[in-house]
Amino acid sequence: MMNEVCKETKKRGIKNIIGYYYPTSKNSMVKEFYPEMGFGLLTEDKKGNSIWKLVVNQYLPRITYFK
Predict the structure, then answer these.
(1) CA dist., res. 14 & res. 8, Å (int)
(2) Which alpha helices (H) appear in 1-67, and where do they start and end?
(3) What residues pair up with 54 in beta bridges, in sequence order?
(4) d(CA 53, CA 19)
């Protein structure tokens, strides 16, 4: 998914993607998504709410396999 998102943002001239993480029971399964995809942490509050930034030109596409 991120490969396609970054490809489309580059076509549109978007340089950064901002992501928000809120620590809820449903979100716990994606807690490491942003750092694993190359986002850098901008801020985090005491409750664990955080804001992340990905510089689109620095994203390294992942190898994917579809059948």
Answers:
(1) 9
(2) 2-11, 33-36
(3) 17
(4) 6
